[in-house]
Amino acid sequence: MADSTKTTRGSGLSRRGFLKGISAGGVATGLVGGAAVQHGKVVEAAPAVVGPGDTAIKLKINGEVKSLTVEPRTTLLDALRNRLDITGAKKVCDRGTCGACTLWIDGQPAYACSVLAIDAEDSEITTIESLGTPERMTALQQAFVNNDAQQCGFCTPGMIMACEAFLKENPSPTRDQVRDGISGNLCRCGTYHGIIDAVLEAAKTMKGGA
Ligand code: FES
Ligand code: FES
C-alpha cells in the first residue's frame, strides 16, 4: 500500500501534511475564476493556459508587426520560416549548438531554434533580412565578400548576425577576441580564417580606415 506520508515530487509537501493543513484552515484557500484566493482575497492570478492548438500571436520583426497563429510549442525559428516565409535564419542543428539560426532579440544575439515564438511576443526581433541589400551591403557583409568568408553559405546569415553583434560590443577587436567572439557559430566548410579576416577588416572600415 502506498505510504501517505511520502512527499510528492517537487511539492515538498506530504499528502498527510496537506490534508492536515486543509482541515486546520477550513475552506480558506481555493481557486476562483482561475485566480488563487485566500481568506476571500485574490492573492495571485493563475497563469493563462494556452494551446495545445494554434494560438494567435503577434511578432515584431524588423520593425513590422506580424500576426500569425502557432502551436505554443513552436520555436521562433519555425514560426519565421514556416509561417512567415522569413527564411534568412537557417535550421541546421535545431538544438542550440551551431548558430545557423542566430538573430537578435531586443538587440542581443539569440538562437531562434531555442526560443518559443510565444515567448518572443513582446520583443523586437531583428533578422538578417533587415541588414543591408546586395546593392548596399553593410561594412561586414562587404568584408565577407572581400575575404571569401563563405563557401556553401549556409552558416553565413547566422554568422553575420553574430559578428555584427560582436562588433557593436567590440569595435576594435584582436584576432583572438574575434575567434572567441564567434565561437557560438559553427561553419562546416571551415571558413573561419576568412570570417576572422572579414571581421577585422569591417572593424577597420567602420572606424573610417581603408
Ligand atoms: S539551428 Fe539553431 S543553433 Fe543550430
Ligand atoms: S560556409 Fe558552409 S557552413 Fe559555413
Could you explain how this protein is built, in words?
The chain has 210 residues and is an alpha+beta fold. The protein folds into three domains: 15-45, no CATH class; 60-88 and 101-130, Roll (Ubiquitin-like (UB roll)); 139-206, DNA polymerase, domain 1 (Orthogonal Bundle), CATH 1.10.150. The protein is 30% helix and 18% strand. The protein is built from six helices and eight strands. A five-stranded mixed β-sheet has the order 5-4-8-6-7, with helices on both faces. Mean pLDDT is 85; it is low at 1-34. The site of one FE2/S2 (inorganic) cluster has 11 residues, from loops. One FE2/S2 (inorganic) cluster (FES) is lined by residues 150-156, 187-189, 191.
What's the structural blueprint in terms of helices and strands?
Elements: H1 15-25, E1 29-32, E2 35-38, E3 41-45, E4 55-61, E5 64-70, H2 76-83, E6 102-105, E7 108-111, E8 124-126, H3 139-146, H4 156-169, H5 175-181, H6 192-206
Q: Main sheet: which strands, in order across?
A: 5-4-8-6-7
Residue stretches low in confidence (pLDDT < 50, at least 5 long) are: 1-34
Q: In terms of structural class, how would the helical and strand content be classed?
A: alpha+beta
How many β strands by DSSP? 8
This entry's quaternary arrangement is: single chain
CATH superfamily of the largest domain: [2Fe-2S]-binding domain
